[in-house]
Automatic annotation (TrEMBL):
This is glucan endo-1,3-beta-D-glucosidase. SMART domains: X8 (SM00768). GO terms for molecular function: glucan endo-1,3-beta-D-glucosidase activity. Keywords: Disulfide bond, Glycosidase, Hydrolase, Secreted, Signal. The lineage of its organism: Eukaryota, Viridiplantae, Streptophyta, Embryophyta, Tracheophyta. GO terms for cellular component: extracellular region. It catalyses: Hydrolysis of (1->3)-beta-D-glucosidic linkages in (1->3)-beta-D-glucans. It comes from the Eukaryota. Its EC number is 3.2.1.39. The keyword Secreted applies. It comes from Quercus lobata (Valley oak). Residues 361-385 have a biased composition (Polar residues). Residues 384-468 form the X8 domain. Residues 353-385 are annotated as: Disordered.
Amino acid sequence: MAKFPKSQPKLVPLLLLLLLFLFSPRHSSAAYSIGVNYGTVANNLPPPSQVANFLKTQTTIDRVKIFDANPDILKAFANTNISLTVTVGNGDIPALSKLPAAQSWVANNILPFHPQTKINIIAVGNEILATSDKSLIAHLLPAMKALKSALDLANVTDIHVSSPHSLGILSSSEPPSSGRFRRGYDKLIFAPILDFHRQTKSPFLVNPYPFFGYTARTLNYALFKPNGGVFDNVTGLNYTNMFDAQLDAVYSAMKKVGYGDVDIVVAETGWPSVGDPTQPDVNLANALSYNGNLVKHVNSGKGTPLMPNRTFPTYIFALFNENLKPTTSEQNYGLFKPDLTPVYDVDILRDKQALGPSPTPGNATGPSSSGGVPEGNTTTSTSTWCVPKSGASDEALQANIDYVCSTGVDCKPIQDGGPCFNPNTVRSHASYAMNAYYQTSGHHQFDCDFNNTGVISYTDPSYEACTYSFQAKKLESSFAGGSLKRCSLVKIFVVLVCYMILHSFTF
């Protein structure tokens, strides 16, 4: 039997620890979770399967909130390990206050998908108190209780039930220590709701929006920019950003009714990147400042002045710009355009090198047409494709097809009978042709310009039997700076470790 020398117990564990350090996953994902609200009030969004794959493979987002229980979205997120919050429509709340209806809702909207789709919260309605609808308000907690009972009866124990609230639930919020629920709602409505959360260990969902609370004087305070802060005379605490102040006002209100221990989740917060002429503070630079600093702040784990070291899972509003919303600013809350290129980068993309630099402050037009790849550089992502811009005309796209197919690029797949012929549309055929040209011409940004009608995508547009090719990046391109040297050092180290472990045995 093999015997270990006396030094073995110390040597091997040390070597194993070094190996674990070197080979442990090093993603840019945050220590704490950043989520996103996936709204669908638009007619130009990619299919849910493409969205789910994009979020899983190209971003560090680990949780998504949707505003319904869309079965296509629920199916698309199966086996992605991304947590999903689904929403009960406001109008369904009165009926769901009865257990049989709640059981039917769970049977139709949860059980067919869970646990393959990692549903973690059922949001019952959205900002019900703000509707001032007495029937909805009265039935909110009974519906929450009925849905929780329905989940229990179905032996589903890992889904919480909650309801998002706007900050209109507070009658006072400045300074944060004065935070209290609206008179008449504190003990009759919120104390019972918070008791439900305590009993079921579910979170209280709030939607803090400094965007709706700032003035010209407090803009920097709202955007997490350097400012003098706001002092709370009661607690002696100084607030350097409005987000913390709003959360602490909610906490103060919860504490006043005896439930300061209930967890808080930020279900919505954001800042639009484009607004009307009367909204000078609605621009790309301010959206980047708010959401970018928000991500850093949430990921710091330092909490708020009244809740130090507490963490708050936070959902940014929103994933996409939604073109059917009623106003310009409402249409431009998205982190991404419908073609999946970033409006701006808040440090949630995995492939930083392919993304390139963040937009400079004051640039209200967003990233370049290529999705942010520095001009003239070869893209280095292992999976980038060239597709038409969402606003490109059929005439321009047909010209692209004609040009590509005249250069000798194989266009047989988009001809009748080919695997990419259907759907038989100019846009679909142009997408295939433009990508084929981009891939075979050198994989440069300018190969996807097409007179400013092309854009580089980070999501595979392949579908069914239609496969879009892509060039794998060269080995040198996948390492930045000293990373290539580090890889070589790691290989040497592994050889040495294996040698030392093998020679530490005596037979």
